[in-house]
Amino acid sequence: METLYSYICKMSELNSKKSNFKCKTWYRISALLGHLPKTLTMIEIQRKSILGEKTRYTVQENGESYRVVANFLAVRITPIHFAGRVHVKSMITKFDKFEDLNLIPDLLKGIRKSRYYKPTNIQKAAIPFALSGRDVVVMARTGSGKTATFLIPILQKLQKRSSEGIRSLIISPTRDLALQTTKFCQKLGQFLDLTCAIVVGGESLENQFMGLLQNPDIVIGTPGRLAHVIAEMSLSLKSVEFIVFDEADRLYEMGFMEDLKNIIMLTPKDRQTMLVSATLPKNLIHFSSFEMNDPHFVRLDVDSCLNQQLRLCNLYVNDDRKIFVLLYLLTKVIPKEEKTIVFASSRYHVDVIQEAFNQAGISCSTAYSRMDEENRRINVDKLRSGSTHVLVSTDIAARGLDIPALDNVVNFNFPSSSKLFVHRAGRVARAGSCGLAYSFVSQLELPYLIYLYKNIGRELKFAYSESDVNTDDLIGIVPKHIIDDLSYFYKLHENQNIKLLHIAAINAEKKIKKFKQKCDSQSIAAAKSIDLGSLVIHPIFKGSDSTLACPVQFSTIGFKPKRKPMGTNLDNIFQARQELKFLNN
């Protein structure tokens, strides 16, 4: 019988003239032949079309089976039986509850204690493969339960304390996501004799060194700090059995690949790997950098990135009127007991909204990337505890922050990326619950809304008739009296803080537009063809009247407007014009 070595040599000679061949996923044959045992015997050959023409083999040597995938001049060899793994054929393929997975009792107890009774769709699809020992790539929308998808197999595999060293490594793109994962890991494994250490920036290096010296079973960290600590401590990763790349698309986008490659090189080749991502990268070849062994792909909600329980409400409003509509929403439309997050494009917009809320008597907390990490945590805890029901934030809260269950999302500035919208809106309607996402859309932002709907597979509806009562996926205008009444009170008070913050926000918006992702020409053309003048009032404002439209109760008793000298002094004239221009906006 022909040996695999001789077959590969023959194929190499036949295909040596294929100059256009490019393959980054598989090992080059020239590098492989020097290490390939010449006694491997082919016992099965079958051809399949998977991402191109490939040949799959099952080979044996000394009773050990191997799976081989060959793609012209490149070959990858993977042992079918890894130490400590269960054969794929014995895998549980279907389960409706966690008890069906034959998990150890202490892990099941932790799952129940965490109030997890029914697995999500992504957990049903991915956990059995992870428990069987296969490498898995998991792609599903935000809020689908991906964290438990890799934590449960890790805890089941490790089970109890070991003196071998670090046995599991979880790498996250941000400090906040790593902290969130650590908290959840401790919650699920609270009845297991396992230790967990976190290695992230912004924390004491000395404390992290001490934590690693305790020989933890699981280490959760960010790539930069983790690579630094490993180098400083000459930390061994030879005992790593399970490695997870959480939010892998962000790890790649944020430029961490060099650190990741250095970490991967220190881990055993027969480790189990899980790659978790909310979105598909533009090029699947990027996954090859994570050195996975014949991974199983699990993709859910590919056609619809948003939960079907999530309702979308779109309001057509100019940028300079958005603050008034937001005040109305939070005082007259959204119930006060519901938790809401307002997304703005910059921290300057966050400051403007916060000041307006202070004037209106609306309690809120804020979060943005430049805020001190401790203050950011305190502000998020205020939302979690219920001391405030509104969080105003930049996109740092879209991914990475441990935000509690929310009822509503408000896109104060509509995102230029559909991917970013999915992550923002994914903060509500999680784990099967319902939620509502409001979006304020100006004329310049309309093409991005159209492009979004094309991507998520929903139909964008326009409010051309007052008989429309269904608010889902509908875009309509805001009643004029709401804006007029609120503007009146702002003109009375002429809040100097809001003026200054508003100017800073305008300047920030100009800078953002320079780097804003351009919308496709088809969506721009579609936006231009829409008859915006025929839009009617959105159904959520039905029944509102002018007397109820003003939620901001300012006291006007004793108010006296400033007198402005308007003679021939050019400086005074210029100042008055600037203030009038701001007030009119």
TrEMBL record:
DEAD-box RNA helicase Q domain residues: 96-124
E.C. designation(s): 3.6.4.13
GO CC, alphabetical: cytosol
Origin superkingdom: Eukaryota
GO terms for MF: ATP binding; hydrolase activity; nucleic acid binding; RNA helicase activity
Motif (Q motif): 96-124
InterPro entries named in the record: DEAD/DEAH_box_helicase_dom, DEAD_box_RNA_helicase, Helicase_ATP-bd, Helicase_C-like, P-loop_NTPase, RNA-helicase_DEAD-box_CS, RNA_helicase_DEAD_Q_motif
Residue ranges the record marks as coiled coil: none
UniProt keywords, alphabetically: ATP-binding, Helicase, Hydrolase, Nucleotide-binding
Stored Pfam families: DEAD, Helicase_C
Keyword Hydrolase on entry: yes
CDD domains in the record: SF2_C_DEAD (cd18787)
All residue ranges annotated as the Helicase ATP-binding domain in the record: 127-298
Database matches in SUPFAM superfamilies: P-loop containing nucleoside triphosphate hydrolases
Domain Helicase C-terminal: 325-475
Membership in a protein family: Belongs to the DEAD box helicase family.
Name recorded for this polypeptide: RNA helicase
Top-level taxonomy: Eukaryota, Metazoa, Cnidaria, Myxozoa, Myxosporea
